[in-house]
Write a structure and sequence with these properties.
Helices cover about 35% and strands about 20% of the residues. It is of the alpha+beta class. α1 (about 10-20) crosses α12 (about 395-415), α3 (about 100-115) crosses α12 and α10 crosses α12. The mean pLDDT is about 95. The structure holds zinc ion. The site of zinc ion has 6 residues, from loops.
């Protein structure tokens, strides 16, 4: 059911907004350097306020500097349907990561105004503070406070490399609002984002209906053998930590391949001691990153990974220890909101597929307090966090159209 399928966003205005705001922190290579709460961030925030006010919104911000542009609804006492993402970037970031979600929201506002349409729910466009985690770690800090994952005290005390606290940086650009972060109600939350991966482009599909975010588990593996002379120690009398580690790393790959295509396994760092060309290595440590959209299968992958590591340790005559270093459970978006996205993409006739996000987003934390869904559009070669990040105007427009209609469908279905 899409009641207003004749309404569409203005794709050229959306593209113009993307190109216009790319000037705040624009780099010679065509990317953006707009670190959270920097001068450039302050300027794009002013642009956001100005633009949304011109579209009839009231703009406010909370105690974490999250900006909310509110368009009144017919039943203005209802909690708002939120649309958002972030306007901060990596130091060598692109023009689309995060920005498309906010500009897509503005495109929705414009389409509603041009159609003379008032929704039942108020609509709010949100710009979340410090999503990237490039200046203040961890990432998604302000949406994390909003979702109750971090305390405000923790978030505001994070420091950048120069020793400046996030709270001080917020104060400096005048963005510590009176409203406590998290006190803001939300009936639903929709985030449009570039995929940041290569799947949609490779399959020539326009819309990714995001089901959630995959679970992730990190480990550190230490393998201990014995340092020995490479020329005098017979092969049968060695305890070679690197040889054992090499076979283990191959098994990490196999565990993921056994759960293809959703299972992922990566060894990204390897350290070898003593690192001398004529010494049999006595100690090797490496990192393991396992991912899967299902926590149950991820649990199974962990069991298989542990078993295979232990089997190889005994086969190769080495000691082995696995230390878990990080766990992030899988996130499943709200079924009703996901249906709003799917039905809208279908009604608009776009090619689509279900997809699971491989990266973190503000939506992950907002999902803890509000029914949430995301929309992905393709980006060039899946490249992101890079000045070369690129997306097609047609895809940006398609994503914003799905966003618009998902909001309209949600407006009809929620609290109905
Ligand atoms: Zn992002």
């Amino acid at each position: 059911m899409v009641a207003q399928s004749n309404i569409v966003v203005d794709g050229s205005a959306l593209w113009l907004d993307l190109m216009e705001t790319a000037k705040f922190g624009g780099t010679p290579k065509g990317g953006i350097c707009r670190l959270a709460l920097s001068e450039e961030d302050a300027r794009v925030r002013e642009w956001f306020t100005r633009t949304c006010e011109a579209l009839g919104c009231v703009v406010s911000y909370d105690s974490m500097g999250n900006q909310f542009a509110r368009r009144a609804g017919e039943e203005d006492g209802l909690a708002p349907i939120m649309i958002g993402s972030h306007l901060d970037t990596q130091p060598t970031g692109g023009k689309f990561d995060g920005i498309l979600g906010v500009m897509g929201g503005i495109a929705v506002l414009r389409a509603l105004r041009d159609a003379g349409l008032t929704t039942r729910h108020p609509i709010e466009i949100v710009n979340w503070t410090n999503e990237e985690g490039a200046r203040f770690t961890p990432p998604m800090l302000a949406s994390g406070v909003f979702g109750g994952v971090f305390t405000q005290e923790f978030a505001q005390s994070r420091t950048d490399r120069a020793g400046v606290k996030l709270g001080e940086a917020l104060d400096k650009i005048g963005y510590i609002g009176e409203e406590t972060c998290g006190a803001h109600p939300a009936a639903a939350y929709f985030e449009l984002h570039i995929e940041q991966g290569p799947v949609l482009e490779a399959e020539k599909r326009t819309i990714g209906v995001v089901q959630g975010v995959q679970g992730m588990r990190w480990y550190s593996v230490t393998v201990k053998g014995h340092d020995a002379h490479a020329g005098t120690t017979p092969m049968t009398m060695r305890s070679d930590a690197l040889w054992a580690a090499a076979r283990m790393i191959d098994e990490v790959h196999q565990v993921a391949m056994d759960h293809a295509p959703d299972g992922l396994g990566t060894v990204g760092i390897i350290e070898c001691l003593p690192s001398s060309s004529n010494v049999v290595p006595g100690e090797v440590s490496f990192t393991v990153d396992l991912r899967h959209p299902s926590d149950a299968i991820l649990e199974k992958m962990e069991r298989e990974f542990r078993q295979r590591m232990e089997r190889l340790a005994s086969l190769c005559g080495v000691e082995m220890e696995i230390t878990p270093t990080w766990v992030s459970a899988a996130v499943h978006f709200d079924p009703l909101c996901v249906e709003c996205v799917r039905d809208s993409a279908h009604a608009l006739g776009y090619s689509m597929r279900d997809i699971v996000s491989g990266a973190g987003h503000d939506a992950v934390y907002v999902a803890k307090v509000a029914p949430t869904a995301m929309i992905f559009v393709p980006c060039w070669k899946g490249i992101s966090h890079n000045e070369a990040e690129s997306a097609e105007p047609e895809d940006a427009k398609a994503g914003a159209n799905v966003l618009l209609h998902a909001v309209l469908v949600a407006d009809a279905r929620l609290d109905a």
